[in-house]
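Marked as duplicate of an earlier ticket. Keeping the data here for the record.
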Amino acid sequence: MKEIIYLALVLIIAILFFGKSNKILNKEISETTEVATFAGGCFWCMEPPFEKLKGVSAVISGYTGGKKENPTYEEVSSGVTGHVEAIQVFYDPELISYYELLEVFWKQVNPTDINGQFVDRGEQYKSAIFYHNEGQKRLAEKSKKELNKSGRFNEPIATEIVKFDKFYPAEEYHQDYYRKNPIKYKFYRYASGRDKYIRNAWGKELNFSSYIKPLDNELKERLTGIQYKITQKNGTEPAFENEYWDNKEDGIYVDIVSGEPLFSSKDKFDSGTGWPSFTKPLEPGNIVELEDNTLFITRVEVRSKHANSHLGHIFNDGPKPTGLRYCINSAALRFISKEDLEKEGYEKYLKEFE
């Protein structure tokens, strides 16, 4: 009951603070909705990973942990109020658990840094978990203990677990900043060092629902000319003159840009076309199908969900049981052999080859 009262108060504050246009007002807050509060440095970067999760109805940027009523961004960022930048995540526990939210949280921060996060320094940017009840406190302490014991980090986990008090929504222009100002946001995020740290800390265990595509100039440096042309400019490589058309090794194929899993060698077949061909995706959720009318005929283009890389096309001339042929460019893929799956962080797919 206390949680419902709290949610109602948040809605009232949002109405008074933002007016009818605020994103909270367009979401249904039911009796089952719960709230989680996390601090992980710049709240611009903390919103996107949680907003994309199934079961999350809203994510609000704001300030918490201090004593001053209704602090402004300028006051908080100067460090004089005792608040930290934070987000509140409104979620349905029947669709996503608090523990799953904690797992996403840890993969967005440097939990060993006691003086801020990445390029943002000071107490106002430290990482913290603000628990709303004893259940959240217990789970937060459990997950922190497990992360400490995992040995993933050379230093102890410094993220604080603090009892929640009050939350003040940030100014309207801070809400969904990554959508309103995508160029500025991507530049800031890239320059902050956050993504580089996350990749180094978690490798391919990175949750792809939180994947942020690199800036174009970084892609040009990371990819070869043909990889960039195909994934970013919808190109097509020559038949029979590409890396994987005749590859018969056991393993999986992932997106060359993001690493998201796409296809398995178990579903690869010799189509005689000179391009890697598959009867079905390994992870259908990582595949997006779009209508393509560029050659005066209607085809179905295949793109990766999180990196939005152009991969190839689907045709209806494949073998049973699907009758489909996913005709994919080698340059859009990276092959990971069965022997390297565990080392690369894809051990969950070892069962494909048992």
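See parent ticket for discussion. The chain has a mean pLDDT of 88.
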